[in-house]
Amino acid sequence: MSRIGKKPITVPGGVTVTLEEGNRITVKGPKGTLSRALPAAMIVKQEDGTVSVTRPSDDPEHRSLHGLTRSLIANMVDGVTAGFSKQLEISGVGYKAEVKPHGLTMSLGYSHTIDVKAPAGISLTTPNPTTVIVAGPDKELVGQIAAEIRSLRKPEPYKGKGVKYAGEVIRRKAGKAGGK
Questions:
Q1: d(CA 24, CA 77)
Q2: Where would I find the beta strands (DSSP E) of 55-170?
Q3: Neighbours of 116 (CB within 10 A)
Q4: Please, are residues 92 and 109 in contact by the beta-carbon 8 Å criterion?
Q5: Above 80 in pLDDT, residue 178?
Q6: Residue 179, pLDDT above cutoff 60
Q7: Considering only CA atoms, which of 56, 53, 45 is closest in space to residue 17?
Q8: Distance of alpha carbon 156 from alpha carbon 162, whole angstroms
Q9: Which of 21, 64, 72, 156 has minimal CB crowding within 10 Å?
Q10: What is the rounded average pLDDT of the residues 51-66?
Q11: Cα radius of gyration rounded to whole Å, the chain
Q12: Residue 117, burial from CB neighbour count under 10 angstroms (0-12, 13-18, 19+)
């Protein structure tokens, strides 16, 4: 049995979980509403403020989907209660980001500025010009938008210029040895 898959998910107050036909689940909470189609083989049951996931057999495919399904539902419940966020740091001379009504405008050393539009449910904020915070209830979408922003100018190993995750360590290279 999957250790993660066996754990029941507690549903906090103010959150409603709705199981629909075709293994579709909808979670509503103070931060928004999330809906997802779950693997058809998994059996999802809701009882007494908890949601549990069971698998029909010990096939390798069912075993791999068991923990995944439980984690997806748990992330949905966490997202509509607390939400998720990723922080990005921008380093480099003249590299900056600023919030505009459409989303984010970034200057990353190119000859033009780059506009990033936030999809519905995702908020982009900049506490200072070199920090970007991507926040929202959907963990998957928050991570995807953060990865897309990082890919606009990945950190380079010589000077460390570019966009990186907060806490990410960039392995530095020595560069050319100075000749005489």
A1: 14
A2: 84-91, 96-100, 103-107, 114-117, 123-125, 131-136, 162-165
A3: 18
A4: yes
A5: no
A6: no
A7: 45
A8: 7
A9: 21
A10: 91
A11: 21
A12: exposed
User: Residue 60's beta-bridge partner residues?
Assistant: none
| Percent of the chain residues past pLDDT 90, beyond the cut | 79
Name the nearest CA neighbour of 156 among 170, 169, 145: 170
- Could you tell me which residues are beta bridge partners of residue 50? 10, 47
- Name the residue with tokens 């979670």: 27
**Looking up tokens 């600023």, which residue turns up?**
98
Return the residue matching tokens 């990410």.
Answer: 168
pTM summary value: 0.88
Backbone angles phi, psi at 141, to 5 degrees: -70, -40
Structure tokens at 158: 């010589």
Contact 37, 22 (CB under 8 A): yes
> Two tokens at 73?
């539902």
pLDDT surpasses 60 at 177: yes
**CA-closest candidate to residue 8, choices 64, 52, 56:** 52
Q: How far apart are CA 20 and CA 17, in angstroms?
A: 10
